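Try this one yourself first.
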């Protein structure tokens, strides 16, 4: 008897799983069909349990999507190759040339650049407004407005979006409310508060190990089906497919998200309070001094705290740069963009993650160049970590 591995595998592959506690990883770009008729049917509409081609769907991405749908209480979820592709696919699915959208003016720099520089090339006009100014939003609405976009906790100034209020406005005008929830998974559930679409950069807290870039779109079945439609779906046709090996890794990390978020929040609250005690201007929604502390308390899910992100104004760019260099030397964490890593990461938004926003706009937003954004890590002993920060502050005569 000759050895034919493919026939042996084929017999067992029908159900794909071998009893492992983790789902097996799809290692295929294409899938076999038992009959040409079924293939034709799958081209016309999705059939549960049937796969065609991995840019459309693959089993591993389905597992991750199902878990993320559970996280965001969405009917359906689509995973993508990045947070940016989740945003661009969503916007391009909803808006056509001649349409308009309203966006918060304080958003992630990449999103800002997409909206400000890229979308106008395709005839989509974006009006940037202060999301806490309801009148400004109403004034910016027109017959061509298709969606309102905001971040539930904004980058980098930690402004809170009043999702219930915004969803009322969106509903009244028959348009969609799209919320980027990257800073607050578990903490805020925008879909339950009335949003239509939730986006995540999985790159950040959800994966939590800063080893890959990924994103997702959570919404109802109808919208996810539109996005993946073979003839007109933005994600199907633009093709930002997440690799299944990465999807499997993210799925495993997702299982500890609730514990990590609690610890990130606890540590960030401690660091915020300490900086505030030292008379620095701190932006953290868990502090009573934060302008929307009451709002976040109203809309947040109990038990997860106020998140792992804070910003502190240390005066000017030179001081910020010196302090961050010192903090890295003292092993407080790393001078790096991104967030949600198990170690503390810090960056100066004005010259990095928000550098796409012109300087005069930055000033209007209150985004000073002395601002340091800190993604507080999972330090076991945060008091000891803060003592290191104090050493840095002292060495620069800041306290
Ligand atoms: C990082 C980030 C994005 C972009 O996500 P990528 O995974 O880097 O493409 C979008 N929004 C926010 C709030 C982010 O922090």
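Now uncover the answer:
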């Amino acid at each position: 008897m000759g050895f034919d591995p493919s026939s042996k595998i084929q017999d067992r592959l029908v159900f794909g799983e071998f009893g492992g506690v983790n789902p097996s990883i799809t290692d295929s770009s294409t899938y076999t069909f038992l009959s040409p008729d079924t293939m034709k049917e799958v081209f016309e509409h999705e059939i549960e349990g049937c796969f065609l081609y991995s840019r459309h769907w693959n089993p591993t991405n389905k597992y991750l999507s199902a878990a993320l749908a559970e996280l965001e209480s969405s009917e359906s979820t689509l995973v993508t190759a990045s947070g940016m592709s989740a945003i661009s696919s969503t916007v391009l699915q909803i808006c056509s040339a001649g349409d308009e959208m309203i966006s918060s003016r304080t958003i992630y720099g990449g999103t800002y650049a997409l909206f400000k520089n890229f979308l106008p090339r395709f005839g989509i006009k974006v009006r940037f407004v202060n999301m806490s100014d309801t009148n400004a939003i109403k004034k910016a609405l027109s017959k061509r407005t298709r969606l309102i976009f905001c971040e539930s906790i904004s980058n980098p100034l930690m402004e809170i979006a009043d999702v219930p209020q915004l969803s009322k406005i969106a509903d009244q005008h028959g348009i969609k409310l799209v919320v980027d929830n990257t800073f607050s998974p578990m903490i805020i559930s925008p879909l339950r508060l009335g949003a239509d679409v939730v986006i995540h950069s999985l790159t950040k807290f959800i994966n939590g190990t800063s080893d890959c870039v990924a994103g997702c779109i959570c919404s109802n079945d109808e919208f996810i089906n539109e996005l993946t439609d073979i003839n007109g779906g933005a994600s199907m046709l633009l093709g930002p497919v997440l690799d299944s090996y990465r999807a499997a890794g993210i799925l495993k990390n997702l299982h500890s998200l609730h514990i990590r978020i609690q610890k990130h929040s606890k540590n960030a609250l401690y660091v915020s309070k300490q900086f505030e005690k030292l008379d620095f201007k701190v932006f953290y929604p868990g502090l009573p001094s934060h302008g929307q502390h009451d709002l976040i308390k109203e809309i947040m899910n109990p038990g997860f705290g106020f998140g792992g992100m804070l910003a502190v104004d240390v005066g000017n760019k030179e001081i910020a740069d010196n302090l961050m260099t010192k903090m890295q030397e003292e092993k407080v964490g790393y001078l790096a963009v991104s967030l949600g890593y198990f170690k503390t990461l810090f960056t100066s938004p004005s010259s990095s993650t928000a550098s796409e926003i012109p300087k005069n706009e930055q000033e209007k937003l209150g985004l000073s160049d002395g601002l340091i954004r800190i993604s507080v890590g999972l330090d076991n002993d945060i008091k000891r970590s803060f003592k290191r920060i104090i050493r840095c502050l002292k060495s620069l005569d800041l306290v």
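Discussion: Residues 82-84, 108, 110-111, 151, 155, 180, 182-183, 201, 203-204, 213, 215 surround pyridoxal-5'-phosphate (CB under 6 Å). The longest helix spans residues 257-277.
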